[in-house]
Amino acid sequence: METLEQQTADTREEMVDIRKNFWDEVTVNFEDSVEMAESYASLKQQAEVLSERERTHRQAAMQLKTLRKLKSSPYFGRIDFQEDGEGVDRVYLGIASLRDAADEDYLIYDWRAPIASLYYDYPPGPAQVETPMGTVHGELKLKRQFVIRDGEIRSLFDTGVTIGDELLQEVLGKQSDAAMKSIVGTIQREQNRIIRDERSRLLLVQGAAGSGKTSAALQRVAYLLYRFRGTLSADQIVLFSPNPMFNSYVSTVLPELGEENMQQTTFQEYLAIRMGKSFKLENPYAQLEYALTSELDSGYQARMAGIRYKASTDFVALIERYLGLLGQEGLKFRDVTFRDELLVSADQIGEYFYALDSAIAIPNRLRLVAEWLLGLLKERQKAALEEAWVDEAVELLDKDTYLKAHQSLKRQNRRNREDTFDDFDRERELLGQYVVQEQFKPIRARVRKLAFVDLKAAYVKLFNDPAFAASLSGSIGKSLPREWPDICKQTTSRLQNRTMAYEDATPFLYVIERIRGFQTNTSVRHILVDEAQDYTAFQFAYLKRLFPFSRVTALGDLNQSINAHAASDENTGFAALAALYPQEETETVVLKQSYRSTRPIVEFTSQLIPGGNEIQPFNRDGKRPTLTIAANEEELHRLLQARIEELAAEGNRTIAVICKTAVQSAIAYEALRNDSKVRLIEKETATFEPGIVVIPSYLAKGVEFDAVLVYDASAACSGYVKESERRLFYTVCTRAMHELHLFAVGNTLNPFLGGEAANYYDVPGTRSSDTTPVHTL
Ligand SMILES: Nc1ncnc2c1ncn2[C@@H]1O[C@H](COP(=O)(O)OP(=O)(O)OP(=O)(O)O)[C@@H](O)[C@H]1O
């Protein structure tokens, strides 16, 4: 640590020095091209020296940070392993490796070293481990876990002796922080499979709520960075998160493990960049809010049917068929004009395009068309030099442009070794060339960008005439939703108004990028998609095209499919994703154990979904969920307030009042803000902080709270009543770590609270003989 401290101090000083004197060390001269090249080289060299120092400093600082952490908590586990025919090896595991003073023997092994797998994968007894030299067989003699804080052993357990995992009990029983924690000390065997998978191109993780999918994903990134150090860097890994707040929630895990953070983004952010400014892009949460609140809207049924259909594999198939057809006919083009003169008409371009060999992919044919057009433009440009308007334009050149033109021509002349244009005619001619060139520049640029293809029309065409898609769909043996004519009307009118609904965004981009060619990102090696159940078939197909060389880790829970399109299982892209990769390159891991919530909470929440009995609660005790009935909204707010105060007094650090929608959240927030320090979470909220929050259901996805208060468990339409809202209700309830309290106004409860589920929560103030609330079904 002393050496590193010295090193960081030295490099810091050097960096400050370089920055301060940067411009003294470089020679900058733009007189001519030789000088410019020299200036550039000198600047570049100086910048490289600086960035090398910065890199050294960053690495030393990170190493130092890791050592400080090791000083406070050097290891969390020990295994004694006896390889067959050898002596017993005692191996300590920590967040990083540490060697002895001679830098020879390992005192502590990094948790990601091959030997560490033994700790995660086996109880004491026969065990084996894969090493670069092959499989090593032997016996695990001891497996010991430690809790070390501030350099002191606080507790230790030998597993296999004690019942239940004491360390896990301790870790999970704690109040939560504002950020997710690393779980390296207690990674479970199934999770370890996810973390260390190196073979699959597609790793699919289906895991119950709270089973550690996100945790495993983040430890996996740390593992990959360790395993492929030198060839894989943090910026070649992208995590797709559900929203910006989630990004903040998970952003501390990797630095905690001494690694740089991967790139984090949301799919929406990606779409927005790709879409540019030509449309107003709807946010997925705005779409969901519409789905949850606008049932009385006259176009609601059609919009919802459209959302579902546009997320389906049927629509993917329809579009593939359509793109096939566009290879033969139907692509719309735009006229190429110059000063109001039609140079090449859309029809001519169409004819040229469709006369090209149809075996050539559309984007490549378009590039051939562009070349052809550029050739025509060149000819036209030559002819334009003789035209009268050029003289006029030269006359009208303003002073600045004139000077600019003059200088640019002077440079050209020097290059072409021509005389300077002292003579008037020659000057006129050269300025004429300049003027014409400037006029053609934007046209050429547009041709290169393939602006002669009407990409928007290509998508709109699917909706202009309802019969068109019907015949396409019929030709592949599929049918369209009943509401198709209305879906068409809504879609075309939105697109005319330059509004891009969320359900259209990905199919639209997919169509246009298939036509003009995908701008792929070839440097990214791994993408991790969290909450993958909420992606559509299209979104996965699109991601695959965008990141052609990337391996994919998709983590999700079908029971938490909450997006507007997720009315049926077939509609989740999760299933469609598997079809995108060959089976032999796909690995599926199922996680059934749930770690987040106490046993009573998991026992209750598993009753809310079909097949919930398969979820295994981790054996952690706690209070049973409660249900509180209020007579009216005013009383509800009073009761909520009182419960929040109680929970805060008990030491709960993160308390969430989870509402169904943003509209409901705003009401709750208004009512609660006066008496407590409440924060309202909206879709733009970018940070996750401890404290009391009011949050709409869909934004609570992926995160967790010490205590959850469900704002509306009644059967009113503001609550969760429809079958399609079952998963939303489940998602909401599974956010609770230690306490779950349900509230309802009136005496009716949502249908999911009836049946078996009723045995798993208490209604304070009632005895079992009292009349229990009515369940409407
Ligand atoms: N092996 C483990 N050791 C300690 N804690 C764990 C372990 N696995 C999961 N947890 C804890 O369980 C909680 C839930 O984990 P996580 O958020 O990763 O689950 P998830 O499957 O992504 O949940 P969801 O789908 O409900 O959002 C977290 O607090 C996490 O720290």
TrEMBL record:
Highest taxon above the source species: Bacteria
UniProt-listed PROSITE patterns: UVRD_HELICASE_ATP_BIND
Keywords: ATP-binding, Helicase, Hydrolase, Nucleotide-binding
Chain positions recorded as ATP binding sites: 207-214
Signal peptide residues on this chain, from the entry's feature table: none
Hydrolase recorded as keyword: yes
Listed Pfam families: UvrD-helicase, UvrD_C_2
Domain UvrD-like helicase ATP-binding: 186-598
InterPro entries linked: DNA_helicase_UvrD/REP, HelD_bacillota, P-loop_NTPase, UvrD-like_ATP-bd, UvrD-like_helicase_C
Name of protein: AAA family ATPase
Organism: Paenibacillus lignilyticus
Lineage per the UniProt record: Bacteria, Bacillati, Bacillota, Bacilli, Bacillales
